[in-house]
């Protein structure tokens, strides 16, 4: 029986060198060689018998795929490297040997649920706009929120000339003396600063923001700065073909 072949970009991503999209860019830019020959065709398939090199360096076997859930604290950037020298989410995962990277991002001052993995296939599927993975945030905002004031968020508001998808929104509580409110908001998009911009659009600037849920993951048992491996059941569910099913009900 012949060995099953895999697409070259998938092999590179599984080796932990980059995401699937990053691997495609490596191939198309001529940085990848198979059996000594430069390959630029994204449809190329290889087996374990083929020798794959990136920038002249061989891939030393396929790295074990790992998956982590982090409760991101404030003051940490969601990136692998930071040109300003700030602490990154990877600095928190001190005992993780594999080269993982965050699935999506959270702002420097935003806390909460963040997945990290070296599985480029899963990462790209989760971040793709068509996946519509729900993300639930709790925001402390300036002002006394009312259902009427938040109503536009349920049908979508225009940000930078483009309307957002309808959001689920509710008021957790209000603090009349402090003139602040706690608002829960669920979206499936991932534009830059989207939640902050949406709430500011309807008159409630965000003071603090926490992502409480990502898909079916929540922060149960995790304090800020703590993380855990995903269970085998969670990984299996994460690999579900229909990513719309990952949305929290």
From TrEMBL:
For the keyword RNA-binding, the answer is yes
Residues annotated as domain RNA-binding S4 = 6-69
Q: Which is an annotated GO molecular function term of this record?
A: RNA binding
Q: Tell me the keywords, alphabetical order.
A: Isomerase, RNA-binding
Q: GO CC terms on record?
A: cytosol
Q: Which domain of life is it from?
A: Bacteria
The record's listing under SUPFAM superfamilies reads: Alpha-L RNA-binding motif, Pseudouridine synthase
E.C. designation(s): 5.4.99.-
- Gene Ontology biological-process annotations: enzyme-directed rRNA pseudouridine synthesis
Question: TM segments?
Answer: none
Does the keyword Isomerase belong to this entry?
Answer: yes
Q: Which CDD domains match?
A: PseudoU_synth_RsuA_like, S4
User: Which InterPro entries does this one have?
Assistant: PsdUridine_s_RsuA/RluB/E/F_cat, PsdUridine_synth_cat_dom_sf, PsdUridine_synth_RsuA/RluA, PsdUridine_synth_RsuA/RluB/E/F, PsdUridine_synth_RsuA/RluB_CS, RsuA_PseudoU_synthase, S4_RNA-bd, S4_RNA-bd_sf
Give the protein family. Belongs to the pseudouridine synthase RsuA family.
Name the UniProt record assigns to this protein: Pseudouridine synthase
